[in-house]
Amino acid sequence: xxxxxxxxxxxxMKVLWAAAELGLEYExxxxxxxxxxxxxxxxxxxxxxxxxxxxxxxxxxxxxxNAIVRYLAAKHDAGGLxxxxxxxxxxxxxxxxxxxxxxxxxMTPVFWGLVRTPPAERNQAAIDAGIAQSIAAFGIVNARLxxxxxxxxxxxxxxxxxxxxxxxxxxNLPFERPDLPHLRAYYDRxxxxxxxxAHIAAVPIS
Length: 206
Ligand SMILES: N[C@@H](CCC(=O)N[C@@H](CS)C(=O)NCC(=O)O)C(=O)O
Known about the structure:
Blueprint: E1 2-4, H1 10-22, E2 27-29, H2 41-46, E3 54-57, E4 60-63, H3 65-76, H4 86-115, H5 124-144, H6 164-172, H7 181-191, H8 194-201
Parallel strand pairs: 1-2
Antiparallel strand pairs: 1-3, 3-4
Bound molecules: glutathione.
C-alpha cells in the first residue's frame, strides 16, 4: 500500500492515523506544496485534483481523505472502526461528511491566516469569522460528547479520525476559546492514542 502526501497536511494526517489504528504497513511518498509531485502527469492520472492524500492499494487508487479512512476501516476492521449496522454507520458517515463540509471550511481561514500568512498580510476579519464559525462547529461536537467518549459511543470509530487534525489546531492556535469541557476531554483522549500522538500532535503546525 502506498500513501502519497506530506506529513503536514491535515488530510494526510487522517489517513496516517487511521493506518496506525489499523496496524497497517505502507510506503509514504512525500507530495504536495514544497515537494511538488502533485502536478506531474503521473500524479494527475491518479488524482486529477492534484491534491493530497492519494492511496494506492493493489488495483485501487483512491482520493478524498475521508473516503480513504472509510475504505481502510471497512477493509480491515468491519464491526469495529467501521460498524456493519447501516443505521450506526449512517450516523458516523454523517459526522464525516459534516467534518468536510462544515467544520473544515470554518477552520481553513484561521489556519491559513495565522500559520501560513505573514502578519502584515493577514485578513483579520476573515480570521475572526473563521474563529467564530469554528467555535460554533466544535460547540456542536462538544454537545454531542456530553454523554459519550467518542462520536459513536464508548469506542473510537472512523468518524472520530477526520476531526483529529483540526481539533489539534483548534486547541493549539493562538486565539481565545470558550470552555468546551467535553471537547477538551475528547482531545485529551485522542492524545492517548499512539497514532494520533505520532502523526498529528507531534507534527509542527506549519
Ligand atoms: N477534500 C480533499 C482535500 C485535499 C486537499 O485539499 N489537500 C491539501 C492538503 S490538506 C492539498 O493537497 N494542498 C495542496 C498541496 O499540498 O500541494 C481531501 O479530503 O482529501
